[in-house]
Design brief:
five-stranded antiparallel beta sheet; alpha+beta; Jelly Rolls; 304 residues; Arc Repressor Mutant, subunit A; elongated; 11 helices
């Protein structure tokens, strides 16, 4: 059952966020950096909160369950989590923050609107990952980020002047670029788990197109749900291991199945399209030609 507007708090500003959780008021209206080791308490707001903000957090020694996207998440050493505007997060009543440490960076999208980084944010897929796909940092990577965060902290605490926003945004961009590097490193260092995911994906893809009966064209979301990962994570993982994203893999299997039907059956082009799950045969023809250079009919003739 989906939450209604009455079920959760909407935190539209940085000040809303700090007030909601009992954090110190922000020194800058569009950004705050919270040292979690210096927070003696956090208000027990266990209901879901909808934040219209970007949040990057490194929480350590958080005891208890944090609900995010209907999934429990246990923060541990060296784990970095990212939240995009519009994502719900909910804590558990039994959460123990007595030994909590780390940091939390909170900033409003308006901070980025005048800068190229604002457009680049959509390209950082880790903001759309499910929380169990958080970034696991090495000790060296954690130290590098700590240095960047310290630079942000010093600038954030300076009196606001004509250059404040530009300096903050430039430092944020460096932080995002390092996070992007570390995410792609994670796909390499966690290869065994990723190869298992790749093998399972290929099994699902083969099984889907082996079905004799017509069924809708598979979507990236379909396979992501079956593998219990987000679409963005699945595409990034596949691209890192194979050079192709999820949609490209789907098209590759689709074309192989299409060629098989064209060469081994007497189905018309329209019937072939419907068998493959296309609602409109002309879309099948366009896709086939864009990938092979031939229309389905021309391919059939050339192969015979």
């Amino acid at each position: 059952m989906k939450n209604s507007a009455k079920d959760f708090q909407v935190l539209a500003t940085v000040a809303d966020f700090t007030r909601h959780f009992g954090f110190p008021p922000p020194a800058h209206p569009l950004l705050t950096l919270i040292d979690l080791s210096k927070i003696s308490h956090i208000q027990q707001t266990t209901g879901p909160a909808l934040r219209q903000l970007y949040i990057v957090s490194l929480k350590k020694n958080l005891k208890g369950r944090l609900e995010y996207g209907h999934r429990p998440y246990d923060f541990s050493e060296g784990v970095l989590a990212f939240y995009a505007p519009g994502q719900l997060c909910e804590g558990s009543p039994e959460m123990d923050i007595s030994e909590l440490s780390g940091w939390m960076l909170v900033f409003h999208p308006d901070l980025l609107h005048k800068y190229p980084l604002g457009k680049k944010m959509a390209g950082y897929n880790f903001f759309s990952y499910q929380v169990h796909e958080a970034l696991h940092l090495s000790g060296q990577e954690e130290s590098q980020l700590e240095g960047l965060i310290e630079g942000l902290r010093r600038e954030h605490e300076q009196p606001i002047d004509a250059f404040s926003q530009e300096v903050l945004v430039s430092q944020l961009e460096v932080l995002m670029n390092y996070a992007n590097r570390f995410y792609h490193r994670q796909f390499l260092t966690r290869r065994p788990a990723e190869h298992d995911l790749l093998s399972h994906f290929e099994e699902l893809l083969t099984a889907y197109f082996a079905q004799a009966e017509s069924q809708p064209l598979p979507t990236v979301q379909h396979f992501a749900d079956a593998l219990h990962v987000s679409p963005a994570y699945l595409s990034d993982m596949l691209r890192s291991l194979t050079g192709q994203n999820t949609q490209q893999h789907i098209h590759q299997h689709l074309l192989e199945r299409a060629k098989q039907l064209l060469l081994t059956t007497n189905l018309s082009i329209n019937e072939t399209a419907f068998r493959l799950g296309f609602e409109y045969p002309q879309y099948f023809t366009r896709l086939f030609k864009s990938k092979t250079g031939l229309t389905p009919a021309a391919f059939r003739v050339a192969a015979n």
